[in-house]
Amino acid sequence: MMEITDLTEEERIRLEAEEIVKREKFEREQAKKEKELYERKTAECKNILDNLPGLGVALVFPNAKDMYSGILAELVNEAGLIMQQTERIEVTKQMLEDIFYFAEPDEEEEEKEEKEEQEAKTDNEEGEMSELDAVILSNFNKESLEILLSKQGVALMIKAKSGHEIESILDEVLKLVYGEMMAPPGSEESPAKLLCKVEDDEESGETKYLTGIWAPRNYCMMATCLKQFFPKSAIQYAIPEPEPIPPHYAVVFDITKFHDALAVINKYPHDIMNHGFFTTDKPEEAELIAKTYHKLEKSGKRTFTEKLVIAVSAKKSECMFELAQLEPIRMSPNTEEGEKECEMFFPEELEDGPEEQLEEEEDEEEEEGEVAIGEGDQTHKIRTEDGDEEGDEDEDEDEGDEWEEEEGEFAGDESEEEGTAEVGLSPESAPVEAAPEPAPEIASEPAAEEAPPPAE
Length: 456
Description:
Elements: H1 9-51, E1 56-60, H2 68-78, E2 81-89, H3 93-99, H4 107-123, H5 131-139, H6 142-150, E3 153-160, H7 169-178, H8 191-194, E4 197-200, E5 207-210, E6 213-214, H9 219-229, H10 231-234, E7 248-254, H11 258-267, E8 272-278, E9 288-290, H12 293-298, E10 307-313, H13 318-324, E11 330-331, H14 335-345, H15 357-365, E12 369-375, E13 378-384, E14 403-407, E15 421-425
Antiparallel strand pairs: 1-3, 1-6, 2-3, 4-5, 7-10, 7-11, 8-9, 8-10, 12-13, 14-15
């Protein structure tokens, strides 16, 4: 006899299918977030380097801050460089995670990273350690990291002397810090070696090496160091994190109220998160017919019973109030239900909004490629999703969907009146604000800009 808590085979299969869908959705969302984070950080680095060209960075550890000046002074002068600015700083774990986001370990560092990760897991009861933590520990041993995070260090902003030309400030700083090796642990007699403190642990008998000075090894890390260590100079060029999706409602109208709803949409464009024409007002059954009225007319699927679904932000009440006055056939009772319904009507599309659909579809068809951030031949390779290189202006990119008025017959009208406008979404009509022209030396995919509000 089957217990009440037991599942039938059909129910078990359905639950497993639902779990698979949820897992796949979560993985898609995570991949999308990671891609957006990478693109935003890359664009931010480009922006900083564009506006603060020729500036290099080095970090002096707390245990070396009393010695670095005498060791570096002559070498800086001989290299044709100057210390533009020094700043006493308290380094945090978050700052290091931001800087090492773009770290590119070589084979030796990867082996060291694995060793450090195993050691850290031994010390950690749960045995958990992030990839980023392992990368940081592959650059600084545990003792050096503890000192860096507990005491003040010194950040150095370095540039070429006036009239002295250099090919790459990144290379010049690496050579200044590490000598001809241009990488840790540094050549003999390099500042990295001279400022490295050696201590013998009396208890364990082991020799400890404390890092004295460090320099970023690629342009993105260098740009991030400028932002973190010299915020007064660089923070104005940082790109703020995008705002989270606001609470929202789903509002559904019969097609016959399209014009009335459109007037409100045009009045409050920033409160409209998405819209489309669907087969029914039931979110679990609804199928998208078209994103624009123009496409609806050409879809060949006209039934004249279509439903206009609008995802509306709950940040302000005016838009929702006016839409409610039009007596929609369905409206979410609260934002919790609204978010669930909008997710069914517009899966994976709410963040992009109604004007991004065509662009997203085209991006999926493009191939991956590499672009570079850096000076001259010394570049930091950046993997992009679309394969385009910065500097190639895409003047012919398709513009987003936007509400516009067109002359013609509107569904539900029995007669045509002269001057009556038919309003719909048309990708050909809406002007989209062009992305800022990138510098030719530094390339990355620019952050997407919000399209201007549609004209009434």
